[in-house]
Amino acid sequence: MATVTNTPVSDLLKSFKLKTKQQELLIRVSILCLVYILAFIIRLFSVLRYESMIHEFDPYFNYRTTLYLTQNGFYDFWNWFDYESWYPLGRIIGGTLYPGLMVTAVLIYRILHFLRFAVHIREVCVLTAPFFASNTTLVAYFFGKEIWDTGAGLVAAILIAICPGYISRSVAGSYDNEGVAIFALLFTFYLFVKAVNTGSLAWSLASAFGYFYMVSAWGGYVFIINLIPLYVLVLLITGRYSMRLYIAYNCMYVLGMLLAMQIRFVGFQHVQSGEHMAAMGVFFLMQVFYFLDWVKHMLSDTKLFQAFLRITVTCAVAVGTIALGLGMLSGYISPWTGRFYSLLDPTYAKDHIPIIASVSEHQPTAWSSFMFDYHILLFLFPAGLYFCFKRLSDATIFIVMYGLTSMYFAGVMVRLILVATPAVCLISAIAVSATVKNLTVLLRSKNKGVLTGSTKGSSSSKASSKALLDQSQPFQKNGAIALLFGAFYLLSKYATHCTWVTSEAYSSPSIVLAARGAHGNRVIFDDYREAYFWLRQNTPADAKVMSWWDYGYQITAMGNRTVIVDNNTWNNTHIATVGRAMSSYEDEAIEIMRSLDVDYVLVVFGGVTGYSSDDINKFLWMVRIGGGVFPVIKEPDYLVNGEYRVDKGAAPKMLNCLMYKLCYYRFGEMLTEYGKPPGYDRARGVEIGNKDIKLEHLEEAFTTSNWIVRIYKVKPPNNRW
Amino acid sequence: MHSLRIADRSPTPCSPRRFRHQVPLHLLQFPQSRLRPRIQVVPLHLLQFPQSRGFDLEFKLADDPKIALQRYGRYLYDALILFCPSVERFGGSIDLAAIIDFFDSGHDLIIAADSNASDLIREVGNECGVEFDEDPLAVVIDHISYAVSETEGDHTLIASDDLIKSDVILGSKRIVAPILFRGIGHSLNPANNWYVLKVLSASPSAYSANPKSKLSTPPTLIGSAISLVSIVQARNNARILITGSLSMFNNRFFRSGVQKAGSQTKHEKSGNEQFLTEISKWVFHERGHLKAVNVKHHKVGETDEPALYRINDELEYSVEIYEWSGTSWEPYVANDVQVQFYMMSPYVLKTMSHDKKGLFSTSFKVPDVYGVFQFKVEYQKLGYTSLSLSKQIPVRPYKHNEYERFIPAAYPYYGAAFSMMAGFFIFSFVHLYSK
What we know:
Chain A: Its EC number is 2.4.99.18. Chain A is mostly helical. Chain A has 31 helices and eleven strands.
């Protein structure tokens, strides 16, 4: 490549000139840098559109705990007993959360302060998720490199940087466990695959630590601790057992288990809960395998070995089953949790645990959201699987299994699309990279001549394509160019789609609502913060606020008031009590509220603005959850012919229950839309059925400017009775 | 004036509600206006008794166009006496709602009804939890325990001594002479009011009917279900006295002797004066008023109040309770004051001991349950103002470093772990370097 010249200047230039390898490295590094930056900045839409703020519901809890951690230090955080939530039960925060996220954010905060960047902890929290998304792209690169080649790694990094499935959970402000957990998940998998490939103790130790970080960050670690044993099992069955695998798995499992036990929330679950038993079983199976291998090595007689094998396997299985059965019976091994069941059987939650089924992100995924979140990756995924199967190795088997299992889970629950995203990106990257590489090789080999074409890469696929190419020489180059353009077109479409989705759909903080006005202008509804600010300013410091659990975290974090239930749905009975109060008549509800010392009741109402995820639309879940614990609440009482209505044809109980009264109090006299009667509910598009609502034990305390949040005060008991 | 004296005696903010506003203590009284003019001059004793105890009395006619209970949002009076059984409408700004508001904001009330009581007075009574006989002409008649009088056969003048047994309400001196009563009876309506109590009830032989007409249907109000005088102490400790007889306040009744039918003893003087004086003392919070101050709690061996407790902490709780004697705050003495350690239900319920100087205290162990607890004192005793104290206190679980570091039961496990480590080390050593 380098041209030969005589001048000293060009000599100097020549010394700067890079060899092909170095050039490639430079390009690769600069691409990675760009991807790193791109992954970060695409997630800043929300900051530009709104402001640097925490989004959604759970992030407010994480923010509040992070704030506590920065102010009070780690030990106080660890021992924090929060009496502002779950009144009057309280919640041991330190023992019921995954501290990884908070510790990470505080660490970043401390480092920045050490470097004399005086940032506020909120900014760190807002930008934690984008920062970790950037890091994930790097991991994706290395992972892709490990399972296929550097090209696939680069493509994977690019794909995952902008994939909407991941962006949905990692935009700036989405300060949630998943933000760091996906990084940790992918990193652990990468390290484990690396450990399996190399058989090195160091890598497998690293993967144990990666696993530890994952356990500290998110409950989704259960996926890792089940996928890896499954993978090992598949390798064992397919006869790919090796010493590398033995070392990688044993070290990772034993150390990972010991480390995971250090997280208070996980504790002894690793040895006691049904969800973790697969890993333990595979661990013992590995030992049996190793032992058999050794015996086989010692015994030369195959017949003898066969007999021995039979006895050993029978014994091992019997012992394992008896141990598991005894453990289950004695209650030492806890059965699977509802969440886990609902993953295996998508209909389980709907029938048994309404509280899990009520969460929108636990719903089965609609087809459209696959298209929305994956776009072309959905088509590239099977192609990638094809390539993986064509070049089976320990690593590709892993990614195939990761891809298939997580795809299944993504189909069961909307939020698990997130877990599937890295696998989908990686497998698609393999498809893209392999296709483009094949095509370019075709083009180049045409130029250089057929024979010099195959120099590297997988020889078998190349050979076949070469054979094909030999027969159809005239069209092959054009076809390749057309296909390349097609790929380019698709990928650029993917990029525009991702940008559009990010900017339009996934950057809304959901605590500030935006709508288009009649003239196309942007209307901002900041009612939530208005209400929480009102609570903070106008109520006694120890006032107890009852609301549906969705708003609990926000009320404690922003309103700084005690709540009865919140988004940490650990106590179903307590939530059901609130659900029962909301679905009872007012004089029954007041008894419940008095017993819980409730001072204020907060409801979210979208009838004026047409905001559809309000409490009236969530109300049936309150009835179901309340009815699940208190059978006096019956769902059919609120329905008319199985239909949920709020207009004149609604069930009488519906029209007079507390939630209805609180939402529609004084609404009957309000004109919401031109040409419609007063009391026209815009969220449901009907005129309400009970316009004359009188409250006896509650009084309206505050209603925000767009009526989205309404707060009522519980009156003291009557003086004379 | 009187109010200043009271203010001097009760400097703490926990003093009874009625002394909090340092306005002169007024009693507003409505003598009957035109309808029954004689009453205007009659109840001389009554007019004296509150005055002699240091109250400012203001008399207004019921149809006075200027009467008002409050001005610029503040009440002018601490108590209201309604001696106008047949008034249909007050002059000025007073109506049923105003009277109820007056009471609900913590002021006291004496209502005297009579036969022919007006709807307004009946409604006031109704709001307070009593129902007067619906027949406007009905009076309480008792053919057995009537008062012997000059007119033979008049059994509407009743001599009753069926009093509530409470020294707090009626004073420690026993009321010996029967109380003369002539007027309408009423019944209590506990569904409407939990706090209403019979003070003077009719004898089992009494009934309520129109004496002028023949009894065609059985009377609805009979026997000791008939209440002659009732009291109410509401949630906010405001007190009401309701009676169905205006004439029992009458001077003639105060002074006249009384002999109960069938009884030989003839009392020189009826019990009316003593009864009404004593019960008015109760109504005007001169007796039976408690206050609780200095609620304190701390761990045993410490003095500072902690922000929260740990499970299984030993703690001490104390509260000072005083009783208003009419002139000063005296230590309250009782053996039945209980404190609850409460979270949705009481986890600890202990009777507090006292030192005869008003300090009630107890100590107990925080239960092994964490959460937001309350110290609750719910003291409701007949005749006394109710004490309802609650103080929120969170109880946290153990911190990670508050458990025992080494427990004897675990020594075998420690031993196992360390011997295992040592054994593994030796094994590795032998395995690697032997031979």
